[in-house]
Design a protein that fits this description.
Order of helices and strands: HHHHEHHEHHHHHHHHHHH
Radius of gyration: 35 Å
Oligomer: single chain
Strand content: under 5%
Structural class: mainly alpha
Helix content: 40-55%
Strand order of the largest sheet: 1-2
Number of helices: 17
Length: about 400
Amino acid sequence: MSDAVRRLQGLIDRLNSIADDVPPDPGPRRFGNVAFRRWYEILEARLPALLADHLPVQVLSSERASDISVQAELQSYLLGAFGSAQRLDYGTGHELSFLAFLGGIWKLGGFDTSSTGSEERGIVLGVIEPYLRLVRRLIKTYTLEPAGSHGVWGLDDHSFLPYLFGSAQYCPAILEKDETPTEGSLPNAPDPADVVKAAAVERQRRTNMYFSAIGFIYDVKKGPFWEHSPMLYDISGVRAGWAKINKGMIKMYMAEVLSKFPVVQHFYFGSLFSWDQDPDAVPPPSSVHTLNQPAKSQSTSNATPSPLRDPHAEDARGTQAARPAAALPISFVGTAAPWAQQSRVMSPTTAFPSQTDQRNISQTPRLPPPSSNARPASEISSRAAATSMPPPTKAPWAKEGPR
């Protein structure tokens, strides 16, 4: 392994030692252990010195077209790679932050790129795999919750990269100019269906990242594998080989991690990884929700909202000053249940009564309150029919005539 890889291995070992100094708080807890916040605070305090000790000088002294230094950007990516101290959780977004930390070092020339392929393999097996082991220790020690997990309907509660790189370890060997295979496996590769065999998982987890992640599932979960990890169980039935699984993992990582807003919203963009608009980007497909939105009319967009009540505009008698009527959108349509009468459904022109209608309504005789001089119900019904009003309702046991 190169000197840069060995430096990063020493950095991860230093982070491991911090966990030795911060034991979890005693007592049963349903959610994350608050001792993780102390581990996080120690990491944040020691991180500038740790980066200065384990990263090349030319990386930290690089100049970028930004007001923020390179060290500050790398520090933010590494600090966000071990979970949230506020929510006490860890997920694929934190894993992506560590990937950005390594990608920033690569862009700044911190790795040896003279030999094709060997440095990349050293980064995956010599840096990412020790990082994942540290993360699993933090999850078990401080009982970190899954961040944004889909539960049994997700690939894994916390990680994704070990399945992507681990399946690539069993793909057929290729040369630099060869195309990436989509089928087949190495001659001595294990069967993907071995994930349901605890003995096979224990044997393969020491040399393969895929089975190492499966082994961690066996460590923290109990019960049949097809119940707590149905997606991984379905993937184990692929008969086209590990190359087919790796191809699916790459597509799934693009769709479920890099293309998900809940993941990207916590990602820091700067000079190393900037947020740029792609002019050739295809617009996202319309969903059922967006297709069923009401159409916007010109009158609706130009409608003026009703002014707010101004207490200073009231006169001395305490009455409110006249205010202009709010413009009503022409596209307003009343809603009604399927069994409602058609005559009672409000139309765009009769959504609200006009001033003339209000005068007519005010002249309509209203029923008097119950009294000894109440008129017979038959008289009320006849007058209501004459004024085109529906007859009043009454109980079946009500008697006709005065009480």
